[in-house]
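Weekly structure sync, notes
Attendees: PL (lead), two postdocs, one rotation student
Agenda item 3: pending single-chain targets
PL asked that the sequence for the first pending target be pasted directly into the notes so everyone works from the same version. It is reproduced below exactly as submitted, 205 residues in total.
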Amino acid sequence: MSNELKNLNEATRRLMKGVRLIDTSNEVIYKLSQKISEIASEVEEYSYSGVIAQGSLKNDKNPIERGDQNPSEFFPYSPAVGPFNPIAPPLEVEVINEAEYKEIRAFGKLDGVYVGPPDLVQGGVIALLFDDIMGSVLVVNNCGAMTGTLEVRYEKPTPIGKELLWTGKIEKIEGRKIYVSADLWEGENRTAIATGIFVKVDLLS
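Predicted structure, written out during the meeting:
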């Protein structure tokens, strides 16, 4: 894992948060816009233009073959857990191997970039994170599959700036269908729950 690329993404996350929360004069905003545009133009000179994936920049690595790694390593460009994707929140992810199937836990805080209602996480962000955390559960259990259905039930508002915990696990496997569940917690309060059916496809088998 490239520390330089990780540092670049962390700096970009800081920039995104700063821009999201900026509160100053139009003159300052204009000056900052000019500076950021110059940097963006320089970065774009190095953009890869081929087929891309969340498992690798150039779609040349199969996450299933690296299922013994951490999700942040086999999905480094994930929009949910990827250290090489600046829209991914800085979550820590761990694999728990205590049951029939390995489970996933992800924890951390979401900042102002992910706000929907006042000081609350936007619901679509929660669904995105559920989907990818559940997908990570499949990989660590050597199951290549794609999302067939994803149902999210929001039980309580999820706050911004508070320590959150996502848990994900396989419930059962029936042929090509894999049934996965996940929970989102803020302290002792469960704020959302998700269930999904993932389907094995030839593309990932």
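Discussion points:
- The chain has a mean pLDDT of 94.
- Residues 3-44 form one domain.
Action: rotation student to compare against the earlier draft before next sync.
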